[in-house]
Automatic annotation (TrEMBL):
Protein's recorded name: uroporphyrinogen-III C-methyltransferase
Keyword line: Methyltransferase, Porphyrin biosynthesis, S-adenosyl-L-methionine, Transferase
Family of the protein in this entry: Belongs to the precorrin methyltransferase family.
GO biological process: methylation; siroheme biosynthetic process
InterPro entries xref list: 4pyrrol_Mease, 4pyrrol_Methylase_sf, 4pyrrole_Mease_sub1, 4pyrrole_Mease_sub2, CobA/CysG_C, Siro_Cobalamin_biosynth, Uropor_MeTrfase_CS
Gene: cobA
EC number: 2.1.1.107
Pathway annotation: Porphyrin-containing compound metabolism; siroheme biosynthesis; precorrin-2 from uroporphyrinogen III: step 1/1
Length: 257
């Protein structure tokens, strides 16, 4: 009988572009007996795992969950105990709104060895791919990172606090709450604040919409933007050389109205 040593490696898959996977993540995948991957991990990344590795999709989207979180936790442990080396592949960085901490805690409660391989987070990588530096000297000295939808499906109360600050605000999982988000910024008299929405950032399916707090809802409708997307609110959006063409188009439309 084989002596199976269970091990779980929690791997961040990055923002979407498979070239943004870290070398350490590639090495971890190459040693996997089982890979449990989510909906945000580009499936091309699975090619780094051995051909005989078991691949299990455990992705979650709004209204479409392959497994509950409790079931995922148990699958990770069961597969580690049965097959040995399990890689849990999660989009972005597993500790930023990824529930990676919960999965590690559950695995360690069984005495299983765990390793974490951080990933490049979409929080900074997706805006950067559009030339948006979420901090910039003389423009923004800090930034907020907020989930748009909490575990009880409500808008995070931190959005209202962030709307009062001068910091850049980056919101994940917020497209279904966008009208509420915009309302909070309008109440702070920030109708002219630049906004960028980047859907499927760093991938071939990437779509971008830019405007202001007052105009972004119309932009979203015109460009048919939806989830998954990053919402960036702040003066740094206007600073992006890559987005100047979008803003020139937007401003020309405003003038012509």
């Amino acid at each position: 009988m084989l002596n199976i040593k269970p091990k779980i490696t929690l791997v961040g898959a990055g923002p979407g572009d498979p070239d943004l996977l870290t070398l350490k993540a590639v090495k971890a995948l190459a040693e996997a007996n089982v890979v449990l991957y989510d909906a945000l991990a580009n499936e091309e990344i699975l090619d780094y795992a051995p051909k005989n590795a078991i691949r299990i999709f455990v992705g979650k989207r709004i209204g479409n969950h392959a497994y509950t979180q409790d079931q995922i936790n148990q699958l990770i442990v069961d597969n580690a105990l049965t097959y040995g080396n399990v890689v849990r592949l999660k989009g972005g960085d597993p500790f930023i709104f990824g529930r990676g901490g919960e999965e590690i805690d559950f695995a360690e409660s069984f005495g299983i060895e765990t390793i974490v391989v951080p990933g490049i987070s979409s929080v900074v990588a997706v805006p950067a791919s559009q030339g948006i530096s979420i901090t910039k000297r003389g423009v923004s000295e800090s930034f907020w990172v907020i989930t748009g939808t909490t575990s009880d499906r409500k808008l995070s109360s931190d959005v209202a606090l962030a709307a009062q600050s001068s910091a850049t605000v980056v919101i994940l999982m917020g497209m279904h709450k966008l009208p509420q988000i915009i309302d909070l910024f309008q109440k702070e008299d920030k109708g002219n604040l630049p906004v960028a929405i980047i859907q499927n950032g760093t991938t071939a399916e990437e779509k971008v919409g830019v405007g202001t707090v007052d105009s972004i809802l119309n932009i979203v409708k015109e460009k048919d933007l939806g989830s998954p997307a990053i919402i960036v609110l702040g003066e740094v959006v206007r600073e992006s050389n890559k987005l100047k063409g979008f803003y020139e188009e937007f401003l020309s439309k405003e003038i012509s109205r």
